[in-house]
């Protein structure tokens, strides 16, 4: 067993002293100019740094979506996906495009970025990812940036409180000359060649120190620069360096000094004046967020007095500390708000200036089932939930209900809400193309901006895990009961009609779950490899004869007969192949087998999911009476039937992720349906 010393030694061995020294580098102003000449990106604006940080993680295309890409950064790979954003590829693309536009100084850098969406739609998570990403990026060589301070007579250093760029110390009349020197050999027309530009002035304190030292040096600027110490800075929200967060409080207690800093009254006696910058705390959220990012939580709840600071910081890149002139600031301003607050903004004429300076990014709920499932799988899995088995489809059913609450009723005649959800999830439906699905999305512009939050489902999953302590399993019915029970007290449901609609959707989801488990049990019963292979061979013999207009040899009589149309249709009907499409389907099968043969490969029915499903359903119909599954709901089961049931149960455990208890539960549930005579036949059962 390791003792305390060995643990300390292990941690010490993982710490990199060289990396620490690089992150805490200090040097002269002259050395900083050499750094800039070597790597001009150290002078990037806040928007440029955020954009480069996101792009440093790379991108990848969204499967099945032409033109859509995913930014790996939003998958949170550093934390193993802990804060990963699922779905929302289009909103995230819009957000990054704004960052790119701002990085290129096309105008977006003078706007407030407003993440707008319902509660629990990942707005705060996006802001948190950006803040944490900037912190990590500033610690890398690629993301390095620098600030400065002033040598004091006692040997101490008075650091610039707003972490300004040392290049801002260069007088206005000399800036172009310096930039020309620093940019020598670089092409401004190439996006890969970063061009140094010097914008803005130092904060009031550094301006005061500069002037004092310039007087002492009799106007010799170079001597003043010898009193400057340059250091590398790393962003930290905890240390309030480069990352600011502001959350509105009660309107009576709101004070704009929280944003722009305040007078330090204890130092007035020392320096003799309120207007001496040494007697001022430049520690407002805008001050500390200079060169980085500031997040405004529920930004539209800000008092009107705050809006002037917000507008100045976005449009003019300036803030107004009390008793001082306007001060330059370079920061990404990102806020988030929900729909009621945004509607209030639209109806408030006093907010017109803010609306004009805002870029709104809609962050809706996920409307793709597979992505919604991932949200819950991230928190409820075998690593996080110990001592309890989550039965198959439990999280899927919760996600299905949540997604259905966010969808608008289809305008397309005959299309159900469940079918619409399945189309969004990438499933095919006769008569619908990819273009049709895109049209459905365009017709429903507000989808995802209403409905049930993932937080509600997560709360009910947590509650179901605790409440059902008597069971070693959490199954879909336990979760659905919790979801329905919670609707009575859900504070965000506006009226009883909406509550009834959500309850009706729970009934719809129960029906979907019933179909899913019936299908699984049926496939488990029919999972006889040899019987399936024989059935497939017989089907293909008939299909080959049919497509080539030949006859089939009867293996019992030896006579040649017409292809068995009844047998072929009994299989095809189980996967909804209509009479009018049977010829196309049969030709597709034979063409596929022919293509495999040309490559020297043998056809396996398992490689064709639709055909495999059809064969399993047909075999189930042929075998269901022999297993006597309905005997499960009686008290007496004979040994032969029990043996067959145990085989089916083992298949459910092996192939579908059940454990002993949940497999028994689902078999009994499906058996009760058989006993009621509710089992559907043919394509309905599929």
TrEMBL record:
Species of provenance: Gimesia aquarii
Protein name listed in UniProt: PrkA AAA domain-containing protein
Pfam families membership: AAA_PrkA (PF08298), PrkA (PF06798)
GO MF term list: protein kinase activity
Domain PrkA AAA, chain residue ranges per copy: 27-414
Taxonomy, superkingdom: Bacteria
Record InterPro entries: P-loop_NTPase, Prk_AAA, PrkA_C
